[in-house]
Amino acid sequence: MSIIHVELLLDREVRDPSGRRAGRIEEIRARRTGSEIVVEAYHLGPVATLERLAAPIIRRGLFAAIGGPRHSHGRRVRWDQMDLSDPEHPKLRCPVEELTKLVRR
Amino acid sequence: MKKLLEISLGVVTSIGGFLEVGSLATSAQAGAAFGYQLVWALVLGTVCLIFLIEMSGRLAAVSGKTLADATRERFGYPYFVIAVVAMSVLGVLVLASELGGVCLALELVTGVHFPWWSSLAAVATWLLLWRGTFGVIEQGASLLGLITIVFAIAAWKRVPSWGPVALHALPSRPTHDRARYWFIAVSILGASIAPYLLYFYSSGAVEDKWTQRDVAINRVTSAIGISFGGLLALAVLVVSAVVFLPRGIQIEKFEQVAPMLVPAFGKAGFYLFAAALGIACFGAVLEVALAVAYMMAQGFGWRWSENARPRDAARFSLEYTVTIALGAIIVLIGVDPLAITMLSMALTAALLPIGIVPFLLLMNDPHYVGSHRNGWVGNVVVCGIVGIAFVLAIVSIPLELLGG
Amino acid sequence: MDLALIRDVLDTQLIDRDGEPMGRVDGIIMSWHPDAAPRITHLELGGVTLARRLPRRLRGAADWLARRLSPRNGDPHRIEVARIVRLGKRIELDLDASRSAAHASERWVRDHIVTRIPGS
Question: Which residues of A touch C10 (CB under 8 A)?
Fold first, then answer.
């Protein structure tokens, strides 16, 4: 059992067992029941910084109006698919293809 | 009645924020050196500021959060620390120039050299913050600041015709002295689009507990208030053009600007100028000190209300105290107020993207502004003008430092 | 209740039982085990926590500064998750700020500087 700082997970690149990039940790979803907060999933976002920061504008389709990407892509990693034994180098426990895609409009 | 009070928030922000030593110095220099040629820079700066102030009010009204609050939450600590350090350092420089303006006004009236006034002026402004409430400061500065109307009256009396002025509302290339022209243009933009105003305005809106219903009145407030300030700055520019340009007077020191109201008002004009300068700068010192303290306190989550007694918002109170003290030290050692003003205005323009780009992202994020997102006009206008300011700053500051 | 930890918890303003501001969530502590769903155990506050979030080159200086400015040698303050009353625009805690260690630097500045100046 290890103590991990969630705020330091932000923007860490995640790779799958064969070393392929899956994305950067952009959000951690959790559920609060009573006085407990349990982590359910991690959302991975694009690797590119600019796209990350501008995500809300991309989603609005403003970028699309000038020919840019219309959706920002992401992947959802369930808690059991993520290996954080080395928090500085998060690893997937499954191949990238098994992750659910998130397409945010 | 409440509407009148809200409009006064816009007006005080405008007068204290717009017509202060920065816009006075830059507008006066522009008029004396280039006549009406730089009117366009004032127009751009004013328009941009109207959009920005309206946005910061809308952010506060819809999200219930101040700009610093929303910035820390949305972009996290690592970005916030860059912004707060940049704004704090810049804030001390700007405060020093405003305090210098108050001291210069006192020097004009008494003949006592300005650094000697720095402690008195600093303590006076500090005392008002220490003992006063936001409401008192807002309304007091608002009413006293109306004295700056003397510039508008002088313009009305002395400007032969307004056609040529209007013509120069469109950008034009300089007829001479290119480096200086663009440097003054960038300083005008930096003097107009002062980021500290946004932190101040959104904090005031939250202190006054604005809600979504205030979004409409906020548009009116910001447009009227900032236009008022812009017109006053324009008045300074044209009066300076009419009074100094024909005589070929180049403004190198602030004392040279002092007689600008004499042709319109006679001997009283000299004292009116000093009064207007002193009062406008006094208001600006209060605003800058509060804006810097608001940003840090809100960003770190401390208690920050100006209505609270100092002991109940200890770190916040200590912060504006330190800011004023540092500014006072700069004035005390006799740094030329005109030089520090022009420099801090140009630096403001250069650092604008750091604060404004994330601000625009916030204003397009429904999580903060709900359905009151920016229209494309606001985004394009602000991006465009800030982009211009940034490019001009990068180009002209080195040139001015090398040539000046 | 569904939570987005980065967007809705991290860097959010904390207030105590009486609505008094108590700082912001500077860090979130998670307890991780390979075979169980990770649990959030504490919220963390403090300059040292913030320093760790900066790029490596700035971390040393920021950490030093945080420890110098802290009245309690700079160890971050942790708040158990059970103390969270409500999560919303601000996070309400079942605590009294005036007694909480998280508020120590506010009290220190008040007692050693601000109240020594007349009119406070």
Answer: 6-7, 10
